[in-house]
Amino acid sequence: MPDSASEFEIIEATPEHCFAVATDVESYPVWAHDVKEATIRERDGELRPVLVDYRVAALGRSTSYSLKYDYSQAPKSISWHLVQGDIERAIDGEYRFEPEGAATKVTYVLSIELIVPIPGFIKRRAEGRILHTLKELKDRCES
Q1: Quick one: average pLDDT of 23-38?
Q2: Vertex 60, ends 56 and 66: CA angle to 5°?
């Protein structure tokens, strides 16, 4: 059964800017602490990343997975799902961008199912690290 979490941040930037930062996956290793590599394997007609290979720090080790991005609701949201992973059975996620005055409410929704079960306290720690990415996105958008 997948574990799910969601969180939001109010970011002092336009929805368009937040969307642009979120889709610049090649820059993730610069500002997203746990992302070690992001390699785009396929782009769409607007040159947005569609198929991306990631290597990330996870639970004291490195894990690799590939995500496929969906822009059908762009620029209001982008979503993704797992294509292949070494310890993941499923990953489904989404960023939603909603105008909030001069700022943007960015909601991060994530569901992950691992191949092997892990204890609850480790899951909660991992969930906190994953959701921390939203705070890193906020810092990047506001810098």
Answers
A1: 96
A2: 25
